[in-house]
Amino acid sequence: MTLVDSISIGGGAERFAAEVTLRLDSTRFERTICATRPRTDESYLQKFAADGVRVIRLERRGKRDLLAWRPLIPELRRTDVLHAHKFGSNVWGVLLGRMTGVPVIVAHEHTWSFQGQPLRRALDRELIARGSDAFLFVSREDRRRAHDIEHIDPSRTRYLPNGVPRLVPTGYDIRSELGIGVEAPVVVTVAALRPQKALHRLISAAAVWRQDHPGITVLLVGGGAEYERLRLQALAETLGVADVVRFLGRRGDVADILAAADVTVCCSDYEGLPLSVMEYMGAGKAVVATAVGGVPDLIEDGVHGVLIEPGDDGALVAAVDGLLRDEGWRARLGAAARARQESEFAIESVVNRIEDLYDELHAARRR
């Protein structure tokens, strides 16, 4: 059983959990995914139905909605492996899993961001790490923080990088849809609209780029909180780049949008192992990304992309500007990025490792 907040294309952890569940070998595993919150993507529900994955929806309305967990109790009593994703599901997965006697519990942290949150760090160490059979981290940096800052026993943790499916463009002309010229430079970021992603820096940089790159368009792809979208749009208006920065919202045609990109950007203040950067790499695009979390596990600076320090606005402006001016450099970085993503961060190889982990832990429990 996969336990996750929501079945959604909006967040990287949720998408990863759904993709892994879909790809588990159906001849070896009876697959169930449980979404604890109401937000559900219909396209995933259709995929699960077509592939024989059971879906449980608890419709929890808030943290105090404890009665919503009751339908899950009998399901857990029949579960061999419970794989929880993200902090909240990790906490409840360990509590309910141990209470109902689930043999194997896997906790999976996708973004370590508990600096200044002593209660969460204590729950990570005393409940999740001690109560799970394996505590997975998507980057070496996140795992290091769990050891050095949270003082979690290293024997309880494992590093398991994410992977993404190959995105195949349909050939649809996004530039034509959006009225962007064939030769006009396009910068793309795919990110949920939340403060962590530091998208205000991208909007500020757009005000500089437009001076040297006539016709430039910056595409922000992703949903998020309405207040964050309004805040970012207001900033674009204030800086005079409302015509440059386009908010596309959630899209199901990310492959076609990336095909139209010249440069892709991840300017987050912190990350786990961002699926968006893997998708940029798989699309063969030049990437500019902040060297946070597991991003350096993906990109070697100057080989697969350009790494910058978080919060360095000047470096962001300069890196994208340099790539827009040098088509050959963009092509070399994009080709190297694609080769690395396909060889090291494909979803199929990650699913194989997860299947082996389930078998290993279940056999150990039986012994």
| Major beta-sheet overview | 7 strands, parallel
Element-level helix/strand string: EHEHEHEHEHEHEHEHEHEHEHEHEHHH
Q: Globular, elongated, flat, extended or rod-shaped: what is the shape?
A: globular
What separation lies between the terminal Cα atoms?
A: 22 Å
Radius of gyration (Å): 21 Å
Per the CATH scheme, the topology name of the largest domain is Rossmann fold
- Poorly predicted regions: none
Q: How confident overall, as mean pLDDT?
A: 94
Could you tell me the strand content as a percent range? 15-25%
CATH-defined architecture of the largest domain: 3-Layer(aba) Sandwich
Number of strands: 13
CATH superfamily of the largest domain: Glycogen Phosphorylase B
Number of domains: 2
If helices are DSSP runs of H or I spanning 4 or more residues, what is the number of helices? Answer: 15
User: Which bin fits the share of residues in helices?
Assistant: 40-55%
CATH domain class name of the largest domain: Alpha Beta
Which secondary-structure class do the elements indicate? alpha/beta
Main-sheet strand order equals 3-2-1-4-5-6-7
Q: How would you portray this structure in words?
A:
This protein has 367 residues and is an alpha/beta fold. The protein has two domains: 2-163 and 346-366, Rossmann fold (3-Layer(aba) Sandwich); 174-344, Glycogen Phosphorylase B (Rossmann fold, 3-Layer(aba) Sandwich). Helices cover 45% and strands 15% of the residues. The protein has 15 helices and 13 strands. The strands form two sheets. A seven-stranded parallel beta sheet has the order 3-2-1-4-5-6-7, with helices on both faces. A six-stranded parallel beta sheet has the order 10-9-8-11-12-13, with helices on both faces. α4 packs parallel to α5 and α11 (275-282) packs across α14. The longest helix is centred in the last third of the chain and has 20 residues, at 347-366. The protein is globular, with a radius of gyration of 21 Å. The two termini are 22 Å apart.
